[in-house]
Amino acid sequence: AQSVSQHNHHVILSEAASLELGCNYSYGGTVNLFWYVQYPGQHLQLLLKYFSGDPLVKGIKGFEAEFIKSKFSFNLRKPSVQWSDTAEYFCGGGYNKLIFGAGTRLAVHP
Amino acid sequence: NAGVTQTPKFQVLKTGQSMTLQCAQDMNHEYMSWYRQDPGMGLRLIHYSVGAGITDQGEVPNGYNVSRSTTEDFPLRLLSAAPSQTSVYFCASSIPGVDGYTFGSGTRLTVV
Question: Residue A98 and residue B45: Cβ atoms within 8 Å?
């Protein structure tokens, strides 16, 4: 069955710290992977996507993710977080249907 | 280009009432989906559609019906609302393999 799992449910960082959020997927067929961000009270916004090609994907706001096929992983990274990155982050995967992980709440302290 | 439009934004229902959450997109996207978001559970897929006239169940379809008579519209029906259906509902659309899903602003539903 198709599934997506996120390892970290809550992450607390100080500004300028590096970020890595884990995501693993489990399904066959065409790999479409996404990271979305949801700021408090808002809807989901696309951070980045992977369909094929270069496994290192760069998105908006300085985020990037690496697709590692052998590990079924698509981890999100940012070298230096800011207070404004405080939000909930969702990893999603699928082609016909998009399934999400449970999300990771990130709090960045000044 | 309005993107994905959801109505209403807020709704309070009594147990047993029925209602339809509306979703419309003006991007000519083939794929549309409905999700519910609950604290600690992320977004769970209720129903999805890969084109007009084609729908399928997602992870949590019970208590919900959908239809897709046009490319633009994908309404979600609650036939007999239950308190367990209190949630925030999001509609999304996409062209697969081309871009990510575009999400609507959500409907906050409370069933009392």
Answer: yes
Distance of CA A78 to the CA centre of its chain: 10
Which of B105, B21, B8 lies closest to B63, judged by CA?
Answer: B21
Taking phi first (over 0 means left), then psi (-120 to 50 degrees means alpha), and beta for anything else, what does residue B28 get?
Answer: left
**B28 or A95, higher pLDDT:** B28
> What is the token pair recorded at A84?
């404004």
**Which of B43, B44, B66 should be substituted to probe chain A, the one whose Cβ sees the most A Cβ atoms within 10 Å?**
B43
Nearest Cβ partner of A102 from B41, B56, B92? B41
Q: What is the pLDDT of residues A63-98, one digit of tens each?
A: 999 999 999 999 999 999 999 999 999 999 988 889
The structure tokens 């300085």 sit at A62
Pick from A32, A43, A102: CB nearest B42: A102
